[in-house]
């Protein structure tokens, strides 16, 4: 199995799709000894398991670490786990149900609709900068600053403080990779402490003087007398930043890299901008920004005759599921006009991405602005990939006009 699945290999990270095809051909579930996880590569299984309540993002609502056969994390990592474990991505019912219901009261479709003019304005400003410079690094100049600015605007974070957000987020997200190092953990703990302290101060200010921002709405959100705790608000804000920009950043840069490698599809999109909505969905399917989503087995399950016992960890391979020929016609072909496209990029079940509508607004805004204002944009050099596999993205994407 190690010969097929090599998440620490730069060549595998650059193109994991041939290996995924072999994994799908050789079975529905595979044991991967280096991380002691069961790999699940097929769309039907991934989709069903995301909805299966015998699995969980956590096990702490039912078991202690010891009861589950797991070693508790080191005490020095506690600030990271406190921050991470109070966010809805890593909670199960009843806490997940309660917090998501309260967050949804604040983060409504109306909130996203109201943000759309801001998103389009920010995208236009960033693309204008690229035009003025005659090119640049699309990742650093457009892909990264847009979602960070949108989340910051939404949370009411002052412009002067926004430079803090991306480094904090990057350091925290390092812990979501496979077997993170002690140095990665140290950086994540420091970022967790600093970001939490910053948000605690901001929440106190909004309690004293509420505004129209999301933090004020989270403070005000209540349901039958229930409210979010301060820690739940802090964890929610951090999750909105981390989840709300990683996928958008990597879909933007990776999507353009995909388009440059498929000139006939790029030409079709430039000729017909009405393809943009389906193009965005296809780019998310074709090269998935979040390659793996992990779940704990809370009660024994069986996959294709293999019993997966309680205490095991499943690695659901989103990137493989999105290229499964059992669900997608000619899945290795980029088709920007693809209509039957139920990709799993935003997950499914109770952990379906809360920010998916906002991500789509941002992606349509940035791709649309670049198509209109930089119609001759071309690649300067083939990019390199970051070393991370789980959250997979480019280091940079150099372009010229």
Feature tags:
401 residues; alpha+beta; Cytochrome p450; 5-stranded mixed β-sheet; 3-stranded antiparallel β-sheet; 12 strands
Provide a descriptive summary of the structure in words.
By secondary structure, the chain is of the alpha+beta class. The chain has a single domain (10-400), classed as Cytochrome p450. The protein has helices at residues 10-14, 17-26, 43-50, 78-85, 95-106, 109-133, 138-143, 145-155, 165-173, 182-208, 214-220, 230-260, 263-271, 276-286, 318-321, 356-373, and strands at 30-32, 37-40, 55-56, 135-137, 222-223, 226-227, 292-297, 301-303, 306-308, 313-317, 378-379, 398-400. Strands 1-2-10-7-3 form a five-stranded mixed beta sheet. A three-stranded antiparallel beta sheet has the order 4-12-11. A two-stranded antiparallel ribbon has the order 5-6. β5 (222-223) and β6 form a beta hairpin. α12 (230-260) runs parallel beside α16 (356-373). The longest helix is centred in the middle third of the chain and has 31 residues, at 230-260.
Label the structural class.
alpha+beta
CATH homologous superfamily assignment: Cytochrome P450
How many DSSP-defined strands? 12
Q: Any idea what the radius of gyration is?
A: 21 Å
Major β-sheet, in short?
5 strands, mixed
């Amino acid at each position: 199995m190690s010969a097929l699945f090599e998440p620490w290999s730069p060549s595998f990270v650059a193109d994991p799709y041939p290996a995924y095809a072999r994994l799908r051909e050789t079975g529905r579930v595979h044991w991967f000894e280096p991380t002691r996880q069961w790999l699940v590569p097929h769309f039907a299984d991934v989709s069903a398991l995301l909805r299966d309540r015998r699995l969980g993002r956590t096990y702490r609502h039912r078991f202690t670490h010891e009861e589950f056969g797991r070693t508790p994390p080191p005490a020095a990592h506690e600030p990271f786990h406190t921050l991470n474990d109070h966010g809805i991505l890593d909670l199960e019912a009843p806490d997940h149900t309660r917090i998501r219901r309260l967050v949804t009261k604040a983060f409504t479709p109306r909130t996203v609709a109201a943000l759309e003019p801001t998103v389009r304005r920010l995208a236009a400003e960033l693309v204008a900068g690229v035009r003025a410079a005659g090119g640049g690094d699309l990742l650093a100049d457009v892909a990264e600053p847009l979602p960070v600015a949108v989340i910051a605007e939404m949370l009411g974070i002052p412009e002067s403080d926004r430079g803090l957000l991306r480094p904090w987020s990057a350091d925290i997200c390092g812990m979501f990779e496979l077997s993170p190092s002690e140095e990665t953990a140290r950086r994540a703990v420091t970022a967790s402490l600093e970001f939490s302290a910053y948000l605690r101060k901001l929440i106190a200010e909004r309690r004293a003087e509420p505004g129209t921002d999301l933090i004020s709405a989270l403070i005000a959100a209540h349901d039958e007398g229930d409210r979010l705790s301060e820690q739940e608000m802090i964890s929610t804000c951090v999750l909105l930043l981390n989840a709300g920009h990683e996928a958008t950043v990597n879909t933007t840069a990776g999507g353009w890299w995909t388009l440059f490698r498929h000139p006939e599809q790029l030409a079709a999109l430039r000729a017909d901008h009405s393809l943009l909505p389906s193009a965005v969905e296809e780019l998310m399917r074709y090269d998935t920004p979040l390659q793996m989503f992990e779940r704990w087995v809370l009660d024994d399950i069986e996959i294709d005759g293999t019993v997966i016992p309680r205490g095991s960890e499943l690695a659901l391979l989103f990137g493989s599921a999105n290229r499964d020929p059992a669900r997608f016609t000619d899945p290795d072909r980029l088709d920007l006009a693809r209509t039957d496209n139920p990709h799993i990029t935003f997950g499914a079940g109770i952990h379906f991405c809360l920010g998916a509508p906002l991500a789509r607004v941002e992606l349509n805004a940035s791709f649309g602005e670049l198509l209109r204002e930089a119609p001759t944009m071309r690649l300067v050099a083939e990019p390199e990939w970051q070393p991370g596999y789980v959250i997979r993205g480019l280091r940079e994407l150099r372009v010229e006009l």
